[in-house]
Fold:
Amino acid sequence: MIRSIKISLGSATQRKRASVEALLREYRAATNFYVNSLWKARGTLDAATLNRYSGGSLGYRQKSDALAMALETVIATRKASKATGRPCSKPRLTGAFRVSSLCAKVEPFRGEGFDFAVNLSGLIPRTPIVIPVKSHMRLNYWLAKPGAKIKNGCVLHEKYIALYIEVPDEPEKVVGDEIGIDTGYRKLLATSDGDFHGMEMKAVCARVQRTKSGSKGKLRAQTARKQYINKSVKDLPWSDLRMIAIEDLTGLKLRTQQKDKSSKHSRKTMAPWTYRQVISRIEQLAQENRVRLVYVDPRNTSRRCPACGWVAKENRVAELFRCVRCNHSADADTVGAVNILARATGNWQDPMVPASSKERELNVVV
Structure:
């Protein structure tokens, strides 16, 4: 597996930081030029597309990095537009830039006070930008893993540089607990054991919703949301687990909008909810802790009674689950997590679904 570790450039000299900023301006200008070109006409990673950009001071390999990032950005934007069924605007690179191993070499640093040196291909031919960096606790943690090593290449930003650490994959655990997890807007994580994590998620998302788009307040709120998600996921008992089952929530927002197009409140509520961020964090920690991750079909997981198997929309009312057939009651999110685990472990039996409203009336237990 590959992990990227951020290292601050606060210890770099003013001259080094100025050189990095100048390099980033050139990278972004070239990338946005290629994005504009690819947006109008199809292109690939070939010499003809590469030679469209003749300005700036980047070398051939540097322009190749810019073209690769532009092509990846355009493809991802069009893919997202196709998935959501919405028109998209032309993307623009303004943040960090990924530098390939052809233009960034990471070597041990022999000077005092630093551990590594990142040699970046600069704007002046045969004059690299050498950035000494200090190791820290997180980097040392990964480098202490058996077989771990630093790869060439990096992610470049004015404030930091991110190094890539390659760690050999370890076999998944064969001993431990199995749990199902239901992710939600009010309770971030509900487990099949009856535990809850991230109970303040609704308030965290509301803060993001209240801030103005593009403002510094919006950025701070989004950062706080990401940190809250990371902390909540990390609070799971990873050392005791061998398997986690979660729902495959691909296209959740799109399905919600299609079901209730007239509900403006529903769309605004779902806007700050970033389930992809939650799933990505679970995937990352599952891999790090050698925990098997299983995706299951989400259909009927919130409507099926775990006691008798009866499936009905009326079983769930807001946060309460009460089976209309056997009167079994529990927290709705906990029931969802139990059903997710049952489906993942093969204990899910075919649900008892009423064939008609008349049959439903005959089977309802009041």
About this structure: The chain has a mean pLDDT of 84.
